[in-house]
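User: I'm putting together a teaching handout on how multi-component assemblies are represented. Below are the sequence lines for each component of a complex, exactly as they appear in our records. Could you produce the 3D structure of the whole assembly as structure tokens, so the students can see both representations side by side? Please keep the chain order the same as the input.
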Amino acid sequence: MHFSEDDLKDALRRKDPGAGFTQRVMARISQKQEAEAAVRKEQKQASGRRWKWRWSPALASALAAVLLTVGGGVGYQQYERIQAQKRIDQQNAEMAKQKVMLALRITNAKLNHVFQRVNQSSGDIPKIRRQSL
Amino acid sequence: MDQDRETRMGAALAQAAQSDSQGFAKIVEEYQAMVFSIAFHFLQDRGTAEDVAQEVFLELYQRLATIESGAHLTHWLRRVAVHRAIDQGRRKKHRSESALEDAPEPSATTALRDPILQEQLQKTLAELPEKQRMIVVLRYQEDLGPAEIAELLQMPVNTVKSTLHRSLEELRRLLTRRFGEIRYAFF
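Assistant: Of course. Below is the structure of the complete assembly, with chains in the same order as your input.
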């Protein structure tokens, strides 16, 4: 089959893509620009979030310090209360001990007195025994 | 005439570089037939060719600042269109046959020599390997010499010449077979 170079040039002549091609290209450009703007906005927001994230360890440290201080204060108060209660209990125990000691001393004195009386009047025992019978 | 176009496009380029969409629209209108036809004759698919052409212009819009002149613009668009069309062809392995009614209208209204022969030439061209096909497109659509084709496709000039020679022989052989089949179908 024979064909000339002119036949090839005719077959491969430039062709138009059709009406509205320029408008379609311009529309795609503006779409792309909008998409890029949205991506930039998203990246900006993301970098803002990253900035907050970078500061959050300091925030956490400050929060931990506040919690430790408050917790320490409450703990110390409770410790003080327990110590005061212990002191009161100790004082009460001391007073009770002294009362018991006093009671024992009184009882001891009374018993000594009774014992002396018993010893002095040991001859009267049968009489007492009789009296009691 | 080419120089006049490049001067006009240089002005449009300066306009477009200042974010003037009118300037860029002028560039698209001027070069759309060249860019689209490189992709269409290579891929033989109107829709894919239009996608490729749009991608080329989108890329141009992003790289406007790097284009120095009208001549540079023509060379840049031709080079990018060639490589994007080859990439697209590799992706899709296009061998689809386009019907005559699906083919785009020629940009210049000149009398057709032989519409059947032209249709058969286009279909036969689609059967050539990608390098041969692109060399034929650049030689006969863009009217480029072997040295310019060699520069665009980054291959030695002698390789372009021998490939072009082989491509034309292959086209003749394939076309003879195709016409033989048509004759056989009729008689």
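A couple of points students might notice: The mean pLDDT of chain A is 86. The helical segments of chain A are 5-11, 21-120, 125-132.
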